[in-house]
Amino acid sequence: MDRLSTLLTHFGVSAGTFHSGSFCGSAVFDGDQAGGHLHLLQAGELTLKLADRPEVQLSEPTLVFFPRPYRHRLFANEAANTQLVCASLDFDGGAGNALAAALPDYLVLELNSLPTMAGNLQWLFNEAFGSTCGREAMMDRLFELLVIQLLRHLLSSRDQSPGMMAGLADARLSRPMSLMHGAPAKAWTVAELSAAANMSRASFAEYFRQVVGQTPVDYLVSWRISLAQKRLREGKSIALIADEVGYESPSALARAFRRKTGFSPREWVQGRS
């Protein structure tokens, strides 16, 4: 199974380019925005201030990725000859969706450490600093592709904190997790999931908890509630959502929803209106 495509089927990402070209002065992102950001330093120097942390000086072409709202500031003086391309990111279901929540707060990566992205980055820079018609629409799509490439990069990394991405990056857990992602309405048993991992039930349950940070049953419930939240944002009825995510009735979904979030589905929607 394609672990990433299955995930992106439910929680895709859209990008909106808002800056391309020379950058001088200061740009403040207070963390109140609805989504994340992706900044690409193409040339020159840039000062990055992350929340309350010390400033970071960037002098090599660098990618700075914020999957969720995160307070930060960019600064460059005129002599730095800074060339910057930036986009806002909106993950389906809002900033609290399962995929965005599973990612690190931020990534700061020099572009020369990302050879598999070189072609896309060069294409994006060509569009950013060119004048071809349709360039903004093209850049938005290239930024979206860049996020998918970043997710691939994370899934190839062995240095993962417990959570969804660690599970999907694990050779034994990626298949059972993809099965849950692809068929959330199915009443998955630990026996079925452990068979998909080619492990005993006891070993699988303990290993899953260590890598993902939840039991398989708790993870399935969390995944279902994340999908329910996305559907509620889309305006779907609780009855349709219950059937889609594997609950026999709207009241059963409402009980599970309250246990996970502390709110009923109606209260949760009203709190975001």
Describe the fold and architecture.
The protein is of the alpha+beta class and 273 residues long. The protein has 2 domains: 3-155, Jelly Rolls, CATH 2.60.120; 164-270, Orthogonal Bundle (Arc Repressor Mutant, subunit A). The protein contains 12 helices and 9 strands. The protein has helices at residues 3-10, 98-102, 118-128, 135-155, 164-169, 174-182, 190-196, 201-212, 216-233, 238-245, 250-261, 265-270, and strands at residues 13-23, 25-29, 36-43, 46-50, 55-58, 62-66, 72-76, 82-91, 107-110. It has a 5-stranded antiparallel beta sheet with strand order 1-8-3-6-9, covered by helices on one side. Helix 1 runs parallel beside helix 6 (174-182). The longest helix is centred in the middle third of the chain and has 21 residues, at 135-155. It starts with a helix and ends with a helix. The mean pLDDT is 92.
